[in-house]
Specification:
The chain is of the alpha/beta class. The protein has two domains: 10-175, Rossmann fold, CATH 3.40.50.970; 190-315, Rossmann fold (3-Layer(aba) Sandwich). It is 40% helix and 21% strand. Helix 1 packs parallel to helix 8 and helix 9 (206-218) crosses helix 13 (304-315). The longest helix is centred in the N-terminal third of the chain and has 15 residues, at 13-27.
């Protein structure tokens, strides 16, 4: 799969999340959705309307919700949690660690409103350290799909995966890059653009901006090789090494802090197996603020232009 382009059609991952939950309930009656009083924002309210017998409103109590999910999983059910990432990652971290991750229970965590584009909610509701926290926790699988199509496929894969899975989801409609023939697998990275001068590795919806950066570079005669890494744990070590060695220069890009995120994971792999000149594009160890999306992307250096700039710097 290579040389993908950015579609004009916009799809919100949270809409796909709600509709796919209904699909999962219909295909596997063990599936239940637990919501922390944010269903109208996460779109878990689609389940509340269409499959109310499989929807449990837990109130503003994520710690308790995680414990209930653990109990349900221990009885053979498949609970899906629905709340904002900032609460699922931080408020109930102890419960996740002790009652879900340590016993490796089959709990699925649909983490909404990740990154800085959260509808101008500001730093209290922006979660930009979740990849670092979740990938450091034993037994936890961490996924960050790029678009609506991959969101659905990642959820289907998570349903079949035995053990806790954390899925990183964004709020607003975003362009698509994958087609219906996309073959998503947990643990696999995907070449979405072939190139020879510099490699861009990205995850989640930032891959859309990475492809747009590749277009900017192509107009300047620079050939960018783009690797999409939706499975952050387990991670496709072989694909990362191969993509780095293809050009000898790596830019990582993510809507997440550069501390411990995708860039950190790739630096660890390349440091051990294939030392490579690299730059990390991401949040520079700061909190965000409330502003429209375009302004936030510009201020925190996540635009295609910023990714392209990092690539040029490696080529100078």
């Amino acid at each position: 799969m290579a040389n993908l382009s950015v579609s004009d059609s916009l799809v919100a991952q949270r809409d796909v999340f709600g509709n796919t939950l209904v699909e999962l309930i219909d295909s596997d009656p063990r599936t239940y959705v637990l919501d922390a009083d944010l269903a109208n924002s996460t779109k878990a309210d689609i389940v509340a309307r269409k499959r109310p017998d499989h929807f449990l409103e837990m109130g503003i109590a994520e710690q308790n919700m995680m414990g209930v999910a653990a109990g349900m999983a221990s009885c053979g059910l498949v609970p899906w949690l629905s709340s904002f990432a900032v609460f699922l990652v931080n408020r109930d971290l102890d419960q996740l660690r002790v009652v879900v991750a340590q016993p490796k229970l089959n709990v699925k965590i649909g983490s909404a409103y990740t990154g800085i584009l959260t509808g101008m909610t500001g730093k209290t509701h922006q979660e930009v350290s979740d990849i670092a926290i979740m990938r450091a926790m034993p037994n936890l699988t961490v996924l960050a799909p790029a678009d609506g199509i991959e969101t659905r496929l990642a959820m289907l894969a998570a349903q079949d995966w035995e053990g806790p899975v954390y899925i990183r989801l964004t709020r607003d409609p975003h362009p698509s890059i994958f087609g219906a023939d996309h073959n998503f697998e947990i643990g696999k990275a995907y070449i979405v653009r072939e190139g020879s001068d510099v490699t861009i590795m990205s995850t989640g919806v930032q891959t859309v901006r990475a492809l747009q950066a590749a277009d900017v570079l192509a107009a300047e005669g620079i050939s960018a090789h783009v690797l999409h890494v939706p499975s952050i744990k387990p991670i496709d070590t072989a694909a990362i090494i191969a993509a780095a060695q293809k050009t000898g220069r790596v830019v990582t890009a993510e809507d997440h802090t550069i501390v411990g995120g995708l860039g950190g994971a790739i630096a660890e792999i390349l440091g051990e197996h294939a030392p490579t000149l690299m730059r990390r594009v991401g949040i520079r160890d700061v909190y965000g603020e409330s502003a429209p999306n375009a302004e936030l992307l510009e201020k925190y250096g996540l635009t295609p232009a910023h990714v392209a700039l990092a690539a040029r710097q490696l080529l100078d």
